[in-house]
Specification:
- The structure holds two protein chains of two kinds.
- Chain A is mainly alpha-helical.
- The longest helix of chain A has 30 residues.
- Chain A has a single domain, classed as ABC transporter involved in vitamin B12 uptake, BtuC.
- In chain A, strand 1 and strand 2 form a beta hairpin.
- The radius of gyration of chain A is 19 Å and the shape is globular.
- The termini of chain A are far apart.
- By secondary structure, chain B is of the alpha/beta class.
- In chain B, the strands form two sheets. Chain B has a six-stranded mixed β-sheet, sandwiched between helices. A four-stranded antiparallel β-sheet of chain B has the order 2-1-4-5, covered by helices on one side.
- In chain B, helix 3 runs parallel beside helix 6.
- The longest helix of chain B is centred in the middle third of the chain and has 13 residues.
- Chain B is globular, with a radius of gyration of 17 Å.
- The chains are: A mainly alpha, B alpha/beta.
- The interface between A and B is medium-sized, with 20 and 27 residues.
Chain lengths: 288, 234
């Protein structure tokens, strides 16, 4: 029973990691761009939700919704005004820009909010749990995070494979120049992709903020987990990213069960093991 | 007849390299025109300039009487000019039907070409609508590329090297479609290395050599020796 409990908790933790990784996977899938500031955008979103709830006194859902809109706009503007200028055959300039953004966001948050650890207040929701079996409890907050992760992937999958915007995403990802011949303005497609990515990272931020403390400096560590989830799952596959998050989560809780000091290490070992056995990840996107 | 597309003294550059020198060109409504020339004569550069993939001076290219030389490709598609690119260039992560649908992304007109009428033109594609485009034959891929361009319902269709890498019998199948496309009030520019094949399907032609027009006329009025002279320059 204890073993089942450990694995279950790992799966739930994996839901949070998948949420971290979704935005990263999305941008990479469409633009072949690795956003090194992704973790910091999650932390930025967490602070925005925190400010909206504490200073403006909004409820958590309203604050989240407002932040989603604000972050979509931020992502759209970031792409059109900054990243678009450096996108090209050379992958280094955009990488350096996102690296710089990471530093700027961390220090901006430090300047504004100080180095204290914060937490989002979700009231009794944080601690409530449901008993699935005798002696087996599931926290409502982690369960919601997993459900939201699955729902977010479902929505993104529908957008990608059932809509004209999704066809534009995939066509641009295949060949941006030929996509222009179809009347697709690749700059707008990229801007919507970055906007969506940051909007999804708000959901990750709320899941993070309810579950654990955050401070301006933890972004890069979240980025690392997100990276690992994306690579374990296979580049460019959203369901793979969910699987990657779950593998990472289960490995960490199993490691922690053996010895609490091993939690992080076990996650990294699982990552290395997958890299060793299946270098392209568990579910690599079909790519000719 | 109305002039749909025209260039006036079009110069085009790849970086510092000048690929086209003072091209004067005209396509009138209902016409099919060929641009022939050897490898490196500037044919593809010419089409890329027309389609907006290469930006030029604004007044060098006119489409429906408007200056479009500096307009980006997505805007030009919306105005009613579509390009079938050299080597098909289908989207590998999209199915056959999705490749066709993505072609309608920027089209303003909704007729006569729809998924149904394109499938009527290429019945084979209807059977394989959910198929993977990367495993299809060159001829089938060329059909998808043409269908994809038609889905934007262009007034002007540019075709770059339709015959490239295809078997002669397949090339004939593809060229047999040209009258049906013209019947739908679409004027056509065909770029080919295969001069004889191109000249059999067009009203007029231009011959390019090293970025300059060396000959223009109607296929019936020019003898082959003159064309060879204009084509090779010897």
């Amino acid at each position: 029973m204890e073993m089942i409990d450990t694995i279950l908790q790992g799966v739930l933790l994996g839901g949070v990691y998948a949420l971290f990784a979704l935005g990263l996977s999305l941008i990479f899938g469409v633009m072949r761009l690795v956003n090194l500031a992704h973790g910091d955008f999650i932390v930025l979103a967490a602070f925005m939700v925190l400010t909206a709830t504490t200073s403006a006194g909004l409820s958590l859902p309203v604050a989240t919704l407002l932040t989603v809109v604000a972050m979509f706009a931020t992502g759209f503007a970031l792409q059109r005004l900054v990243l678009q200028r450096v996108l090209g055959d050379d992958i280094l300039p955009p990488l350096l820009i996102t690296f710089g953004l990471s530093i700027a966001i961390q220090n901006g948050l430090l300047l504004t909010f100080g180095a204290d650890s914060r937490r989002l207040d979700a009231g009794s929701f944080e601690t409530r749990s449901i008993e699935v079996l005798q002696g087996l409890n599931i926290g409502l907050a982690p369960l919601s995070a997993l459900i939201v992760a699955v729902a977010a992937i479902l929505v993104l999958q529908i957008v990608f494979y059932r809509t004209s915007l999704g066809r534009a995403f995939r066509a641009t990802s295949d060949n941006p120049q030929i996509a222009q011949l179809m009347g697709i303005d690749h700059r707008n497609v990229y801007a919507v992709a970055v906007g969506l990515s940051l909007a999804v990272s708000v959901i990750a931020a709320v899941a993070l903020g309810i579950r654990a403390n955050f401070d301006p400096a933890i972004g890069p560590a979240r980025l690392l987990y997100a990276f690992e989830a994306v690579i374990i799952g296979g580049l460019g596959s959203l369901w793979g990213t969910l699987a990657g998050g779950v593998v990472l989560g289960v490995a960490q809780t199993l490691g922690a069960r053996v010895n609490p000091e091993w939690q992080i290490l076990a996650g990294h070992l699982a990552f290395l093991l997958v890299l060793f056995l299946r270098p392209r990840g568990l579910f690599p996107a079909r790519r000719p | 007849m109305t002039v749909l597309l025209a260039t006036h003294g079009l110069d085009a550059f790849y970086g510092d390299f000048q690929a086209l020198f003072g091209i004067d060109f005209e396509l009138r409504r209902g016409e099919a025109v060929a641009v022939v020339g050897a490898n490196g004569a500037g044919k593809s550069t010419f089409l890329k300039s027309l389609a907006g993939l290469l930006r030029n001076r604004r007044d060098m290219i006119h489409l429906f009487g408007r200056e479009i030389g500096d307009r980006p490709a997505p805007e030009i598609v919306r105005m009613g000019l579509a390009l079938v690119p050299e080597g098909r260039q289908l989207f590998p992560s999209l199915s056959v039907e999705e490749n066709l649908l993505v072609g309608a992304y920027g089209g303003e007109r909704r007729s006569p070409w729809t998924l149904q009428t394109v499938y009527d033109l290429f019945p084979l594609l209807r059977e394989r609508r959910n198929g993977n485009v990367t495993v299809m034959s060159g001829g089938q891929q060329q059909m998808i590329a043409i269908g994809r361009a038609l889905m934007s319902n262009p007034h002007v269709l540019l075709c770059d090297e339709l015959s490239l890498g295809l078997a002669p019998i397949v090339i004939e199948d593809i060229y047999r479609l040209i009258p049906r496309i013209r019947a739908a009030d679409t004027s056509i520019v065909i770029v080919e290395q295969d001069v004889a094949r191109a000249l059999r399907s067009v009203d007029r032609f231009y011959c390019l050599q090293e970025g300059r027009i060396t000959l223009t006329g109607r296929p019936a009025e020019v003898d082959f020796a003159t064309i060879r002279q204009a084509y090779f320059g010897t």
